[in-house]
């Protein structure tokens, strides 16, 4: 009921982009801002949950103070959510091929378990305040934005109104939609083109690798049996110490210069042949993307602008809106259907819905 009310409100409040841009925290000019998918709006929760963004920002500030690595986990979670089936919180469902479900989990897609826990925590905090009106997909999107901001990156507004899927993606779907770290630029560009993301978007979004870590298994194909000729020698020597075998369970930072800061140093790494994955380094090797890498390496504002554009586009991929999907009361499980619901009513509907 509350969610229907929220979507009604959002339809009534048609807010011009100008309003948002004039307030100054968006780095992107109006002409560059991608048009909003119908059903999403910057003021979606203004009435139904006005404190939503503050609750999330405040909580994440505390969480990141004890472990800044969680920021990377949350940013990557949103990427995986959006690329597989759309930004619909499908990644959060138990049993999802890229989610925490043990049965179907693919080891090479391992996302930090703590990221899932934090989303559930945020969901609970928001639900206590507003009821079950904010979707898990929107919480994931705003957590990714805050991960960027609280790691020193740019602030930007996120449009809301995404709804949560009723089903999770299959393992095949997950593998088909997430590019592998062994991809070259051609693979990356064609993979992202299927999502209407441009060459510039591809380079800018890869800049998400300015924070976080990778496991040896994601890059040891560049070390053994023969060393990738586009890799700096000292960098390679050190990686071989961290990963003495291809199957080592060790991890290393994605950005060798400033591993926990959301800045443009990732592109400086690439120019110095210190990109970790093939998909990273080849952006500098390939002459279709090299000049974009260089332009971001020398101009952080330019990177920020294009990263925001990429994130806004990515954040609108195949979203469910209006009456599609549902607002999950628990991010890791579908809402009980009416028949299951009647059996739990006696246990207390209030507890279930979080009111
Ligand atoms: C362009 C294609 C991409 C490829 C091939 C790729 C691949 C990977 C791989 C293999 C890992 C490390 C997994 C591991 O070994 O533990 C990783 C980590 C990460 N990726 Fe990507 N990624 C891509 C795009 C993105 C995008 C678009 C974002 C967000 C904007 C992103 C954000 C991250 C972050 C933050 C981490 C670190 C996660 C952590 O520390 O827990 N990636 N990525
Ligand atoms: C919605 O809330 C945002 C953030 O508090 C504010 O900037 C904006 O003016 C509000 N819009 C409306 C239509 O109330
Ligand atoms: C970041 O953006 C939010 C709205 O999206 C705004 O409330 C906040 O004041 C901004 N913070 C900074 C530091 O610009
Ligand atoms: C998944 O993909 C594999 C190989 O591409 C195929 O053999 C298998 O039938 C697919 N499974 C499903 C459930 O589609
Ligand atoms: C995961 O591993 C499988 C087989 O080991 C490989 O085919 C696939 O490309 C990998 N996917 C990613 C996203 O790394
Ligand atoms: C990129 O990799 C694919 C295989 O994934 C290969 O077929 C293609 O030739 C490569 N392209 C370039 C330009 O190296
Ligand atoms: C890409 O754009 C086309 C044309 O606007 C649209 O039909 C298609 O659904 C879009 N694809 C995705 C994945 O958003
Ligand atoms: C993990 O990395 C350290 C150096 O960073 C190395 O000494 C150790 O052998 C590695 N362990 C494994 C299991 O690969
Ligand atoms: C890793 O590979 C090495 C050499 O192939 C092997 O001796 C070792 O048992 C493997 N370790 C694991 C954890 O699989
Ligand atoms: C990229 O390099 C290829 C082969 O060296 C060349 O044919 C092509 O013109 C170059 N393209 C650009 C945009 O520089
Ligand atoms: C860096 O990029 C910003 C944003 O596009 C632009 O306004 C600025 O002029 C650029 N700075 C330099 C030194 O080129
Ligand atoms: C959410 O759903 C999962 C999976 O069904 C369950 O394990 C967990 O206990 C539920 N959490 C809450 C708070 O209801």
TrEMBL record:
Annotated keywords: Calcium, Disulfide bond, Glycoprotein, Heme, Hydrogen peroxide, Iron, Metal-binding, Oxidoreductase, Peroxidase, Secreted, Signal
Disulfide bonds: 49-130, 82-87, 136-331, 216-243
Molecular function per GO: heme binding; lactoperoxidase activity; metal ion binding
One example of a Gene Ontology biological process annotation: response to oxidative stress
Cofactor note: Binds 1 heme b (iron(II)-protoporphyrin IX) group per subunit.
Binding, heme b: 209
Keyword Heme: yes
Residues annotated as site: Transition state stabilizer: 76
Location of the Plant heme peroxidase family profile domain: 39-335
Biological role stated in the UniProt entry: Removal of H(2)O(2), oxidation of toxic reductants, biosynthesis and degradation of lignin, suberization, auxin catabolism, response to environmental stresses such as wounding, pathogen attack and oxidative stress. These functions might be dependent on each isozyme/isoform in each plant tissue.
Protein name: Peroxidase
């Amino acid at each position: 009921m509350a969610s229907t009310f929220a979507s009604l409100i959002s339809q009534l409040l048609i807010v011009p982009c100008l309003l948002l841009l004039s307030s100054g925290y968006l780095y992107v000019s109006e002409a560059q801002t991608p048009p909003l998918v119908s059903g999403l709006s910057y003021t979606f929760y203004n009435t139904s949950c006005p404190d939503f963004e503050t609750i999330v920002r405040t909580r994440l500030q505390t969480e990141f103070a004890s472990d800044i690595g969680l920021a990377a986990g949350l940013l990557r979670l949103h990427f995986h959510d959006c690329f597989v089936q759309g930004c619909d919180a499908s990644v959060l469902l138990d049993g999802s091929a890229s989610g925490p479900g043990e049965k179907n989990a693919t080891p090479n897609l391992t996302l930090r378990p703590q990221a899932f826990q934090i989303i559930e925590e945020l969901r609970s905090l928001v639900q206590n305040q507003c009821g079950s009106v904010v979707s898990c997909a929107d919480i994931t999107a705003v957590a990714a934005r805050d991960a960027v901001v609280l790691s020193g990156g740019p602030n930007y507004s996120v449009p809301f109104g995404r709804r949560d899927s009723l089903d999770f993606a299959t393992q095949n779907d997950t593998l088909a939609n997430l590019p592998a770290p062994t991809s070259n630029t051609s693979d990356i560009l064609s993979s992202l083109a299927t999502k209407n993301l441009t060459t510039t978007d591809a380079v800018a979004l890869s800049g998400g690798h300015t924070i976080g870590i990778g496991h040896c298994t994601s890059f040891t194909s560049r070390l053994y049996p023969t060393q990738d000729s586009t890799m700096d020698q000292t960098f390679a020597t050190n990686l071989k110490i961290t990963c003495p075998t291809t199957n080592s369970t060790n991890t290393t930072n994605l950005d060798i210069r400033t591993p926990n800061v959301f800045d443009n140093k990732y592109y400086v790494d690439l120019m110095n042949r210190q990109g970790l994955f093939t998909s990273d380094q080849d952006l500098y090797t390939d002459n279709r993307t090299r000049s974009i890498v260089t332009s971001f390496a020398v101009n952080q504002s330019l990177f920020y602008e294009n990263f925001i554009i990429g994130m806004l586009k990515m954040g609108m991929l195949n979203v469910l809106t209006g009456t599609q999907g549902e607002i999950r009361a628990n991010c890791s499980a579908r809402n009980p259907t009416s028949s299951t619901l009647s059996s739990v009513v006696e246990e207390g509907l209030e507890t279930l819905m979080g009111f």
